[in-house]
Amino acid sequence: MPIRPRRSVLYVPADKPRAIEKARGLDCDTVVLDLEDAVAPEAKAAARETLAALSRDSFPGREFVIRVGSAGMSDPGEAEAVLAARPDAVLVPKVRSAADLQHVQERIDGGSAGAEIALWAMIETPEALLAAGAIAGCCMAGVRLRCLVIGTNDLALETRVPLEPGRAAYVPWFMQIVAAARTQRLDVIDGVLNDFRDEALLRSECLQARSLGMDGKSLIHPGQIAVANAVFRPAPQEVAWAGAVAAAFTLPENKGKGVLAMDGRMIERLHLGAAQRILDMAQACERKDRR
């Protein structure tokens, strides 16, 4: 499956047409139209009407995702509106088990566009933390899961563990989610930063998330996009290293070798795989940012 940048994942309330229109011209990698927390119960109907005017082509050059209500698309009106919009993926909140995702995929597959729509899963409950491996593993049962999204605010609420600067208490959970995701080659998106005006803290959280193996950041304001895009894009020195590793293994004298010495350091063929991913991601980011 081709690499797809998910550095900046911007949430937009589905009942705000002006915000949705603005999102069409933003530099985020992914637009998530939110039918859950960002939409008051009395505005749900208006949000569904807004979806009726949208499609996968509404956000050219960006991934289009819809976060459904916590009932997992059990509302027929919501399911109809989501399927009609034909998003790239449906983001399922409050996931507690692999069965939750299987249930949503069954509903999606009942529509004409079902096979084209993937799933993202919010990991934001204690049950999801304990079942992260099984949730990721539902891919082996045919569930089209592509991404795990960490819901830090809900985790703080349900576990009663405060979200303090540095998020030290959350690091073991973050690594647990990343490990589960990698068993199925899934991406992991970090949770939101509520203080959207604090650019320094945003950069710090993005750097932390990237160092822990995550692929992008959930965002709630357009002003956060540039920082996330910059932090999660392969740095020039990474691209230079990756290019050198790829070039070294293509030299005729190194054909068939499993281990090489480069600049005084040992590199193995496993490093070639990592290098190729860096090069592919850098190219994907460049293509997206040129649009």
Automatic annotation (TrEMBL):
Pfam families: HpcH_HpaI. One of its GO terms (molecular function) is magnesium ion binding. GO terms for biological process: oxaloacetate metabolic process. It comes from the Bacteria. Its cofactor is Mg(2+). Substrate binds at residues 67, 124. Keywords: Lyase, Magnesium, Metal-binding. Mg(2+) binds at residues 124, 154. Belongs to the HpcH/HpaI aldolase family. Residues 7-222 form the HpcH/HpaI aldolase/citrate lyase domain. This is Citrate lyase subunit beta / citryl-CoA lyase.
